[in-house]
Amino acid sequence: VHVYPKAYMYNVEDITYMEKDQFQPGNILYINSAAMKSLNTSHWQPHVIAGRDNFDEYQEGQGSNARFNFMESFYQRNSTTVIVADSGNNCVRIVDRITNTTSRLSGRCGDPDGFGSIDGPFYSAGFASPSFFVRLPTTVSGGHEQLAFKDFSAVRKIDFTTETVSTMAQDDQIQQLSALTINPDNSSLYLSFLNGIAKLDLLTNKLTILSLSRRHGRPVDGPLSVAVFESGISSLTFLNPSVLLISDYNNDMIRVVDLITEEVTSLCQIPEASKYSCYGGVKSGDIQECAVCSPNALLVIPEKNQVLLGSVGFFGYIKTTGL
């Protein structure tokens, strides 16, 4: 008996990134562009940690007095400290979960001329729309606590031990990086960029282009080498060591990349007829019938056989049994 996966959608709010909440176990910690919140999944009610909806500015403060400008991701350094990519302010900030206060870690927060990737110590480093932090394994970091992240067109890293920021990889073929994740065995970073997918080997620092399309139009499934990925990929995550999930924001679908067969397929695609009314096209159901609107964040919950999905105005999950 084949059990088809299903998708379930709930009306909540915009979600750009999420993780399991280390400070409040059982909750989901998530962000929209301007606020960080913790969501109780028993009754689907969030409470604000820092920032305020619809106030895209820069200001340090406590709780809703703090201001962010298009947060794209975060990293929970431990249960009480969250590192935030404040992409619109071109800097990296800290949220203290005990006091709910914010502070600057590095970058020129709030400076209208602060856009630019500059290596160096925390106090002088510069950023260009940073996001998607990934903890680097000690085999690569030399025992240091390091986070890889994506800037506009480079993969860079933050070293908490030396308090410096440096560039890991940059290539003319990978312009306008949009998302980054690490594979389950911690050997490679997978990147999405303007028109494709790439892999960065962490031991050799070799960059391999897996898919690069120079055509425009609707995305195309099929062999990975010729599949079409348009700009708008907003999240990458591994379902398991051989399956990469991609949230295709602009095209209202989830893409599935089988790294063994090197085939790309699509899930929960909004019908073309509903494109001009995306919200009206969202629906739960079997994987052949479900539809999502502008998907953003993806979070795999293996113990529940679920992939949580945060999108524009909706929160849901896909049951992965049979996927």
Structure write-up:
There is one protein chain. 2% of the residues lie in helices and 45% in strands. The protein starts with 5 loop residues before the first strand and ends with a strand. The protein has helices at 138-141, 278-281; strands at 6-11, 17-20, 27-31, 35-40, 45-51, 71-76, 81-86, 91-96, 101-107, 120-121, 131-135, 146-150, 155-159, 164-169, 179-182, 188-193, 196-201, 207-212, 222-223, 233-240, 243-248, 253-258, 263-267, 285-286, 295-301, 306-311, 314-319. Strand 25 and strand 26 (306-311) form a beta hairpin. The protein is built from 2 helices and 27 strands. Strands 24-1-27-26-25 form a 5-stranded antiparallel β-sheet, with no helix packed on it. It has a 5-stranded antiparallel β-sheet with strand order 10-14-13-12-11, with no helix packed on it. The radius of gyration is 19 Å and the shape is globular. The model has no long low-confidence stretch (mean pLDDT 87). The longest helix has 4 residues, at 138-141. By secondary structure, the protein is mostly beta strands.
Question: Could you outline the blueprint of secondary structure elements for this entry?
Answer:
Layout: E1 6-11, E2 17-20, E3 27-31, E4 35-40, E5 45-51, E6 71-76, E7 81-86, E8 91-96, E9 101-107, E10 120-121, E11 131-135, H1 138-141, E12 146-150, E13 155-159, E14 164-169, E15 179-182, E16 188-193, E17 196-201, E18 207-212, E19 222-223, E20 233-240, E21 243-248, E22 253-258, E23 263-267, H2 278-281, E24 285-286, E25 295-301, E26 306-311, E27 314-319
